[in-house]
């Protein structure tokens, strides 16, 4: 998330009431999760396991819960609770904006687009030309939809990221300030849910087709010409490259890459990144020919045991 205007390190420290290390006028342009940070961004880190990764990331301001040596060309914000302070910044720069009607006055809807009854369109939504949005679709704030897009009934675009910190008093939610991007010629089936990014975008690429009842997690990027069948669950921060096919009830864990041309068979459970053009099956998912050979060998076990008697 980029701020409406550039701020100084001292100004940000004042907002969250914390100490800082670095030039008081050090420029701060935005805030992002570590996988999408850029120069001028704040990233937060609250566990020693990830200190080094955060300090060496593209972020130039690190919101951290320990005094450490400040890398050259960067600045630190010293916080007792970086998770909480990151949320404070989200709420300060992008507070929740109430909607007052089904279709917001700030929404932009292109020529030839048809909106069926009971569709909710939030603030600052942009919808391209010749789209068809069926009844009871909910499109949350800041969603961007291209041309020739079809979205079927009951689908929700832009729900919050599923991201929590476990505290003694309960789960603390990380506030979402990102959005959803749907590119041209996409079709999304009924009752799908596509979560917005925590600070960036969840993206569905051009000419990709989604069946009904699909969950796409926060900050996931799905490429072009992908086919995804019903009841697939994709966790957050997944990269799905172009021309991938995912069959029904497959599940994909977070932070993996599904390479171009991959096919995931029904009910596959992908726990690590795939290789291009390979078909996978099973849980944990493996190359389909290897999986089928193993199944044949497993069937021989009773016979082998019988021979040992």
Automatic annotation (TrEMBL):
Gene3D superfamilies for the chain: Hexapeptide repeat proteins, MurE/MurF, N-terminal domain
Record has Acyltransferase as a keyword: yes
InterPro entries given in the database record: Hexapep, LpxD, Trimer_LpxA-like_sf, UDP_GlcNAc_AcTrfase_non-rep
One protein family per Pfam: LpxD
GO MF annotation terms: N-acyltransferase activity
Biological process according to GO: lipid A biosynthetic process
GO CC annotation terms, alphabetical: membrane
UDP-3-O-[3-hydroxymyristoyl] glucosamine N-acyltransferase non-repeat region domain span: 26-91
Keyword Transmembrane helix attributed: no
Domain of life of the source: Bacteria
Keywords: Acyltransferase, Lipid A biosynthesis, Lipid biosynthesis, Lipid metabolism, Repeat, Transferase
NCBIfam families: PRK00892.1
Protein name: UDP-3-O-[3-hydroxymyristoyl] glucosamine N-acyltransferase
Originating species: Salegentibacter echinorum
């Amino acid at each position: 998330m980029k701020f409406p205007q550039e701020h100084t390190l001292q100004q940000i420290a004042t907002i969250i009431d914390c100490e800082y290390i670095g030039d008081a006028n050090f420029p701060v342009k935005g805030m992002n999760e570590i996988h999408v940070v850029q120069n001028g961004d704040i990233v937060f880190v609250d566990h020693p396991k990830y200190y080094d990764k955060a300090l060496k990331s593209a972020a130039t301001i690190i919101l951290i819960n320990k005094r450490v040596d400040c890398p050259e060309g960067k600045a630190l914000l010293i916080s007792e609770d970086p998770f909480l302070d990151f949320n404070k910044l989200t709420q300060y720069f992008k507070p929740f904006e109430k909607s007052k009607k089904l279709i917001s006055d700030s929404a932009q809807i292109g020529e030839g687009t048809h909106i069926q009854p009971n569709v909710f369109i939030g603030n600052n939504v942009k919808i391209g030309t010749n789209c068809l949005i069926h009844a009871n679709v909910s499109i949350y704030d800041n969603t961007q939809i291209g041309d020739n897009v079809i979205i079927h009934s009951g689908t929700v675009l832009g729900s919050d990221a599923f991201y929590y910190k476990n505290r003694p008093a309960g789960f603390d939610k990380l506030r979402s300030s990102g959005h959803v991007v749907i590119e041209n010629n996409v079709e999304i089936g009924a009752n799908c849910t596509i979560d917005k990014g925590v600070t960036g975008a969840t993206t569905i690429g051009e000419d990709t087709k989604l069946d009904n009842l699909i969950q796409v997690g926060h900050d996931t990027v799905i490429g072009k010409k992908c086919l995804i069948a019903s009841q697939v669950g994709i966790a957050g921060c997944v990269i799905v490259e172009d021309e991938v096919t995912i069959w029904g009830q497959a599940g994909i864990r977070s932070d993996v890459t599904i390479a171009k041309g991959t096919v995931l068979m029904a009910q596959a459970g992908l726990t690590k990144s795939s290789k291009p053009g390979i078909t996978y099956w099973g849980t944990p998912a493996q190359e389909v020919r290897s999986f089928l050979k193993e199944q044949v060998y497993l069937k021989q076990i009773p016979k082998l045991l019988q021979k040992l008697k």
